[in-house]
Design goal:
Elements: E1 11-16, H1 23-37, E2 41-45, H2 46-54, H3 68-90, E3 95-99, H4 105-117, E4 121-128, H5 132-143, H6 154-171, E5 182-186, E6 191-195, H7 200-211, E7 219-223, H8 228-232, H9 243-259, E8 267-270, H10 274-281, E9 287-289, H11 306-312, H12 314-322, H13 335-341, H14 343-351, E10 356-360, H15 362-373, E11 389-393, E12 402-406
The structure holds 6-O-phosphono-beta-D-fructofuranose (F6P).
Length: about 425
């Protein structure tokens, strides 16, 4: 299924940049964002082709441009990955991210020519950063723990990686091709330069890239405390917290104070509905109520139990059961509508550099969780987001480690399954 509403040509995003500039991180974020928007997206990382072929742990000399054998092998692997990109696109893929250094004009010209011959749009995404401290931090956080260096002496690994960097730097040519489409992001979004960007998705990606950053920080997701509607098994509405929900809000507050010193920055977002605002009010920190975070609108079914819907509106009940992602409540929303509504929240979430706690609702948090962990849209309506539990996610270079904290009361339910 595609949600490509403008019937555009498939898009290949060609990453460009020296090692340790956050290319792979950004490539994965682009794939995650476009997947979430409904496009069939995939990252092709040339480094993993090299590791699959030659094993991890190539010394820096392999990357020396004066090493003809190494250069030939690297070109071959980049070509192999590109063949896979084009095969994937020919099979219906809509967004491919070609993740390699692509550091010379000559390599980029070759990649572009092959994509264009296949009828595919190309946008190059260059990441530039000359701040030594950011680069070193990135090397320590992602490279030294990554497959090429894991288990090696950190100082020796650092020296080897820096030598690898020098090899790339000696031949690097910044993107300046006047006839090509490109986006250059300088110093973590401090400056964005664009050339020949048009089309629906490329324009959206510019905004996305203006917001995304590679600095790790936690995102916490929790539903509000159990509400009186949850106790009664009713969906939607704007009820207050039940006594159990108030206890959760207190538990959340104590847990949060342990997790993040109250003197340290933390963004707390709620919806505009009572149950999240009341939960947030127990935390002793400033909160931002946000209409976009309101629960899925159950329209004509708002305030009913699932059993009542099954009895009184069996066709609606059945339609939702058979396609929960696309089913739209009469005069209400579908999960797909919800995903579209949440896009500004995603951008804001990416932009913030401090930790963010979202006190939200079941359907909304399913959609946000899916974005943060890369779950595909069809899974969104079924993801488990239980009451009285905090989910901690740390988007970082090496995937998204997840922790769940059940804070109790533990027997809180929301009265059934839709
Ligand atoms: O039951 C709590 C609730 O937040 C409802 O307000 C909402 O309609 C529902 O969960 C969403 O879950 P599902 O899509 O599984 O019905």
């Amino acid at each position: 299924m595609t949600m490509n509403p403008f019937d555009e040509r498939p898009l290949v995003l060609v990453m460009v940049g020296l090692p340790a500039r956050g290319k792979s991180f950004t490539a994965r974020r682009i794939a995650r964002y476009t997947t979430w928007l409904g496009y069939r997206s995939k990252v092709f990382n040339v480094g993993s082709y090299r590791r699959a072929r030659l094993g991890a742990g190539q010394k820096h000399t392999f990357f020396d441009p004066a090493n003809a054998e190494g250069t030939f092998a690297r070109e071959q692997m980049a070509d192999e990955a590109l063949v896979d990109v084009l095969a994937w696109v020919a099979g219906g893929g809509e967004v491919a991210v070609f993740d390699a250094t692509n550091s010379t004009r000559e390599r980029r010209a070759r990649v572009r020519a092959r994509c264009e011959a296949a009828g595919v749009q190309v946008v190059m995404v260059e990441l530039v950063c000359d701040d030594r401290s950011v680069i070193e931090k990135n090397v320590r956080v992602s490279k030294l723990k990554g497959p090429d260096y894991v288990g090696r002496d950190p100082e020796e690994a650092m020296r080897d990686f820096m030598a690898r960097l020098d090899h790339y730097e000696s031949v690097y040519e910044t993107v300046d091709e006047p006839d090509a489409s490109w986006i250059r992001n300088v110093d973590l979004g401090r400056r964005i330069e664009l050339n020949r960007i048009d089309g629906h998705l490329p324009s959206k990606l510019v905004v996305f890239l203006m917001n995304v950053h590679i600095l790790p920080r936690a995102v916490y997701l929790t539903r509000h405390g159990q509400s009186t509607f949850n106790v009664a098994g009713r969906i939607g509405g704007d009820s207050s917290l039940a006594a159990s929900g108030q206890r959760y809000a207190d538990n959340l507050s104590s847990w949060l104070n342990q997790e993040i010193d109250p003197a340290n920055p933390l963004e707390v977002w709620t919806s505009t509905l009572r149950r999240t605002v009341e939960t947030g009010s127990h935390l002793g920190r400033p909160t931002r109520p946000w209409k976009l975070l309101d629960e899925i609108d159950a329209g004509a079914c708002d305030g009913m139990t699932y059993e009542e819907i099954a009895q009184r509106m069996p066709e609606e009940y059945g339609a939702r059961k058979s396609d929960k992602l696309r089913y739209r409540y009469p005069r209400g929303e579908s999960y797909q509508d919800l995903i579209a509504r949440l896009e500004p929240v995603i951008l804001e979430l990416e932009r913030h550099r401090e930790p963010v706690l979202i006190v939200g609702h079941q359907a909304v948090l399913r959609a946000l969780y899916a974005y943060l962990t890369g779950e595909p849209a069809h899974k969104v309506p079924h993801l488990p987001i239980p009451l009285h539990t905090v989910i901690k996610l740390v988007p970082g270079g090496g995937g998204v480690p997840e922790e769940r904290f059940e804070l109790g009361p533990i027997d809180a339910t929301d009265g059934g399954h839709g």
